[in-house]
Amino acid sequence: MKIFLISMSFLLSFLSGPTRAEIVEGQEYQLIRGIPDEKSDGAVQVYEFFNYACGHCYEFQPVIKSWADKPPKGVKFNYMPAIFNERMVPLAKLYFTIEEMGLLGSLHQKVYDAIHRDGVTFPSDESILAWVAKSGVDAKKFEKTYSSFGVGNRARMAMQLTRKYRIPGTPYVTVGGKYLTGPSMTLRRDRSGIDSVKFIATLNMLVEMSGK
After folding, report:
1. Structure pTM?
2. Which residues pair with 39 in a beta bridge?
């Protein structure tokens, strides 16, 4: 009975979330100006700009993952490490290596947990490779991929995208090259944290608006 009541409460709160008329530019989202619509094979591109070292990203991860696991039809979701300076490159390369090796399902959350739960720091390439070697991953294959031209090029592209979208911090989500939103724009009324229902509803509406 308790589980049923919780489920019904979540459903009702979702249904009573913001309608399109309640999404206000400058509040729940911002327009991204000067960038052409971004679609790949007809799909709306959605990027979560994140940083493994960001505590807000760690708290936001379960929310965005719940949406990204089953995105609306016609949407392509992408994690995108934000790079504001050279110090952020190693963690970005860590993400791209994990993705390239098909290890997102097993390592993406583990990296977050290592930093924010276990107090591990990754200040350099060497510290990343040392941690990976203890994680049951083929260390030689990982190092080869991490040091590859492809991963380095993807990190450079991530830095360019961060600048192109004028990402103000992390985490933020872009939709179709048109809209920017994030947990800081969808807080609870008492501003004690993200209103997850409001964020998901906002994101879905921006996807719908971007598809038109």
Report:
1. 0.87
2. 44
